[in-house]
Write a structure and sequence with these properties.
mainly alpha
Length: 592
């Protein structure tokens, strides 16, 4: 009788708490919740429900964090003692506990809270919660951005994926493996990443072949195609970083076929995915176009531009979530680099302005891509004939770089900017020391952790630096190494054209004019295809000297005329960009 009386009192106080909550009497509601908990002595199911609601109110509507933590201790005692309770309520409680410590930045308590939540989810077989919590743990460790925590995240992702595999939870298996791959790529562990991708492929193949899947709905076919695209995009990144561009392009062909399948499913049936899934799909499509543009940027400008335009059409400017903002920023960044390489300086500056606006509106985006933005600003300043400003941007970029590859790229750009400046800021000896320091870094870093493009760019820097010092033999060796990589593995026409122009200069100096002419002609053809006016000017100047030496005045004059035309094109592009009212504000943005 007493227990029944206690339950009646508990329900009455619980109803009172909710009434006061509706009346926005938060202190009164909290007092009633506390009283209801005290009266729920013998009914753990109800007690846990009240506890979850009470904690929600304390965290959302008060700053009584210590009181909330006392309630967490009560709930954990109930769970540890094996008290009777609804599983979804228990998991909600455990999730709230994780969320609280994450918000309060109490990392030690958060780690313990995640361990408790994951343990109990696995113990009672709450698999959706188990996988969700493991994903949150992975996200938490990845946010720290230190190798030790990244390795922990990778270990969690791999072990959780094995659990998913044992229970035939295929979707979770693939998603956790994809997280594992992302972490290994973040750690520059490319072989481990490829191994994870291969495991994903096997699971996806098994899912596609099962009879159960064959009879699934449009929604299910949609989901499987999206998972397959995500896996293939990871493979594309690994292929590009390894310099296997042909493999990347083959994989992208398969991706575009899946993309067409998804789009046809969306347009040809009435069974449409919900709005959230469609938004996710649009982001995925935009990512495909981003990756496609990335692989074409150094070989096929027209295709790259078409992909970028398609991607930007899909990423709505009104969306403000960090995923969409990041995609828009990265698409704009490639658009900027494309415009600058084609000497479309006013257009490139307008794109940079849009990137600055995005970063100004989103501090999180700014923090994530600050180095990337300053690298693009450095490119812009150098193209505008202001290398000192470009070097200042590179110094800022170096401060905020979040990866080894980006840091090395910045150092290579810095050395090349000093090397090519008409009024160098540093002495030849200082430049020599800078290149030597960079060479020492490359010698100490395992080659397999670096992209082929960075290795190729460093060979180009070394060759150009040696050439400037008159060391023709060593310069030729380094430039040939760069050309071998850019032609055979990287397939970067921009780097190939640079190497060929410099090699043509070397062969001219050693009186091998025929070989010099062949290399310069090839360089000009590649530069023309890429609309790289600056490189055309560089190569044509040397070719003009060859015709002059041969006494072929007609061809020498034709080359001189062509060079003047291209120099005028550069001059007009610079003047047009410099006349923009916001030019100075853009090129000096975020400089101290």
């Amino acid at each position: 009788m007493a227990a029944s009386s206690d339950n009646l009192l508990c329900y009455a106080l619980w109803r009172l708490a909710n009434t006061r909550l509706r009346d926005e009497d938060v202190p009164g509601a909290c007092h009633a919740f506390a009283a209801a908990l005290d009266s729920a002595v013998s009914h753990s199911v109800i007690k846990m429900r009240i506890l979850v609601q009470y904690i929600n109110v304390l965290l959302a509507k008060t700053t009584s964090y210590d009181l909330a933590e006392e309630q967490f201790e009560i709930g954990m005692r109930l769970i540890t003692e094996g008290a009777n309770m609804e599983l979804d309520v228990m998991m909600t409680f455990l999730f709230l506990r994780c969320q609280h410590f994450a918000t309060r930045l109490q990392n030690e308590q958060l780690t313990k809270a995640y361990e408790d939540a994951v343990h109990h989810a696995e113990r009672v077989g709450e698999w959706p919660w188990f996988y969700y919590l493991q994903s949150l743990r992975i996200k938490h460790f990845r946010a720290v951005k230190q190798d030790f925590h990244l390795h922990q995240a990778a270990s969690i992702a791999l072990s959780a994926s094995k659990v998913a595999g044992l229970h035939n939870h295929h979707d979770a298996h693939v998603k956790l493996l994809l997280q594992y791959v992302q972490i290994q790529m973040q750690l520059n562990e490319r072989l481990a990443a490829v191994d994870g991708i291969n495991k994903c492929d096997k699971v996806l193949q098994s899912m596609a072949e099962s009879d159960e899947v064959q009879s699934q709905s449009v929604q299910r076919l949609w989901e499987l195609s999206c998972l397959r695209i995500q896996c293939d995009l990871m493979r594309v990144v690994c292929n590009v970083q390894s310099g296997h561009l042909k493999d990347a392009e083959e994989t992208l062909k398969r991706v575009h076929m899946d993309l067409a399948t998804i789009q046809s499913l969306h347009s040809a049936t009435t069974e449409r995915p919900n709005a959230a899934d469609w938004l996710d799909a649009k982001r995925l499509f935009a990512t495909v176009y981003l990756m496609s543009a990335w692989t074409k940027l150094a070989t096929d400008h027209m295709s790259a531009r078409q992909y970028l335009e398609k991607g930007l059409e899909l990423v709505e400017a009104s969306e403000t979530d960090i995923t969409t903002l990041s995609l828009r920023f990265l698409l704009l960044n490639l658009s900027c680099l494309l415009a600058l390489s084609r000497c479309e300086l006013a257009s490139g500056m307008a794109v940079v302005s849009n990137m600055i606006q995005l970063c100004t509106a989103s501090p999180e985006l700014h923090e994530r891509y600050r180095a990337t933005l300053h690298i693009s600003l450095a490119h812009l300043c150098v193209r505008l004939g202001q290398p000192p400003l470009g070097l200042r941007h590179l110094r800022v970029a170096s401060t905020y770089s979040q990866s080894l590859e980006t840091s090395l790229t910045i150092e290579i750009m810095t050395a090349l900017t000093h090397l090519r400046a008409t009024e160098p800021e540093i002495t030849p000896q200082n430049l020599k020391e800078l290149v030597a320091s960079l060479q020492k870094k490359f010698e100490d870093i395992p080659k397999e952790t670096l992209s082929a493009e960075v290795l190729c760019s460093f060979d180009l820097l070394q060759g150009e630096h040696l050439l400037s010092g008159g060391q023709l033999g060593p310069a030729k060796d380094r430039l040939r190494a760069s050309l071998h990589l850019s032609n055979g593995i990287v397939q970067n026409s921009q780097l190939s054209a640079n190497s060929l122009a410099l090699l043509g200069n070397i062969f001219l100096r050693v009186s091998k004019e025929s070989q010099a002419k062949d290399m310069l002609t090839s360089s000009i053809l590649l530069a023309t295809k890429l609309h790289d006016v600056h490189l055309q000017v560089q190569a044509v100047a040397v070719l003009q000297t060859i015709y002059h030496n041969r006494g072929d005045s007609e061809k020498a004059q034709a080359n001189a005329k062509y060079r003047r035309k291209k120099l005028e094109q550069i001059s007009v592009a610079v003047q047009t960009a410099m006349q923009e009212p916001s030019m100075q504000q853009i090129v000096e943005w975020d400089l101290i």
